[in-house]
Amino acid sequence: MDFNFSEEQLMLKDGAERYVQQEYGFEARKHIAAQPEGFSREHWRTYAELGWLGLTMPEDVGGLGCSFVEMAILMEALGRGMALEPVVQTALLCAMIVERGDAQTQRETLLPAVIEGKLLLSLADSEAGSRYKVGCHARTHARKTARGYLISGAKTLVVAGESTDQLLVTARVESASQGVGVFLVDRRAAGVTCRSYRLLDGSRAADIELHDVEVGDNALIVGSERALEVLTQATELAILASVAESLGMMEAVMAITAEYIKGRSQFGQPIGKFQALQHRMAEMFVATQEARSMLYCGIAHLDRPAAERSRAISAAKAVAARANRFVCAQGIQLHGGMGLTEEYPVGHYFRKMTMMEKMFGDIDFHLDRVAASNRKPVTV
Q1: Distance between CA 361 and CA 366 in Å, rounded?
Q2: Residue 343 binned pLDDT confidence (cut-offs 50, 70, 90)
Q3: pLDDT digits (tens, 9 = 90+) for 140-181
């Protein structure tokens, strides 16, 4: 694997970092987080204009056809600004499910709208007690009718659930196979109810209930034969994107903390000259670089067999989540009491870290996943 970025990738990196620095400052982010939707529609439209929502989508639907490396570059930059827009949820997770699904007509209709920033998609998969399981269908079922399906059930923690236009709902298809399918459901359809709430980082999620929601035959995006495979692949890409986002957060916390200890004086000199604090900064740097190495390892395994790919991605998530927790906690410690105030950014990074650690599986979940996989060494 070549770890050097191409000229186009460097342009994307510089442009995304400059945008976050100039347009997504800390005060601007606090204002966005206080809005009812928990993200900015204006920024979302700008992401579409810049082509960021179609980075990994095929060219035949209006995307740029880039590799996952470009998505990782973008998410690292957005992580630096703690961006609140549901890029991973809509433009990667849901878009990948539709792109790899069985419904060609829906693919040609939905994906261009996502890329243009006109359509928000959210995956409604998690259920009460499911503990990070993919393809949940114990509490949600789809009954076949003459005109399509009737879907009933309940889903939890649907990212941007109240703001989304369409839901991708996982449900048990009541047939001989009793497998899980993925259905396209209008968020405002009759029988859909939503209870929205704010998450720790200021973004919003929702619990969704479905009561005999009627959909047509074309609403089945992925049938029971392939649904679990497609959901797993898309979720693993989302996990890796969240690792890149965590990496951007760690880089930002280190920069903020380094600036603070250089400017704060004690005993007649900047506290950054104290060797004990320099050691802490060095440990933060090492943890961040370990997370970066694991991200690259995960990307290198995207084309490997499923078992190797899953193991490498879970290892990357576990290492990055632990490193992010350490770096953000040390950032708080080195700021002293100031780090816990609402007016200073490092505490907000800690909140977002806490939330992201639980998204797509926590540290223990992914360590168990690695332990349960085959024992062959992961190599780059």
Answers
A1: 6
A2: confident
A3: 999 999 999 999 999 999 999 999 999 999 999 987 567 899
Q: Which residues contact 228 (CB under 8 A, 6 or more apart)?
A: 134, 135, 179, 180
pTM, 2 dp: 0.94
Mean pLDDT of 177-190: 91
Distance separating alpha carbons of residues 225 and 320, to the nearest angstrom: 33
CATH 1.20.140.10 in the chain: give the residue spans.
227-372
Task: pLDDT band for 2, please (50, 70, 90 cuts).
Answer: low
Just give the CATH number of 227-372.
1.20.140.10
At position 105, the amino acid (one-letter code) is: T
CA-CA distances (angstroms) from residue 213 to 205, 221, 336?
21, 16, 52
Q: Write down the CATH number for the domain with range 7-115.
A: 1.10.540.10
Phi, psi of 321 (to 5 degrees): -65, -40
- CATH 2.40.110.10 domain position(s) in the chain: 121-222
The 3-state DSSP class for residue 315 equals helix
**Spelled out in words, what is the top-level CATH class assigned to the domain 121-222?**
mainly beta
Between β-strands 166-173 and 269-270, what pairing exists: parallel, antiparallel or unpaired?
Answer: unpaired
Alpha-carbon torsion angle 174, 175, 177, 179, nearest 10:
-30
Predicted pLDDT at 316? 97
Question: Which amino acid would we find at residue 173?
Answer: V
The three-state secondary structure class of 247 is: helix
HSE value, Cβ hemisphere, 13 Å, CA-based, for 209? 6
How is residue 158 written in tokens? Answer: 């649907």
pLDDT digits (tens, 9 = 90+) for 60-80: 999 999 999 999 999 999 999
Measured distance CA(127)–CA(156) in Å, rounded: 5
Ranges for all domains in the chain classified under CATH 1.10.540.10: 7-115
- In this structure, what token pair is assigned to residue 269? 């000199």
Where does the pLDDT of residue 375 fall: very low under 50, low under 70, confident under 90, or very high at 90 and above?
low
Place of tokens 């760690």: 250
For range 233-255, the mean pLDDT: 97
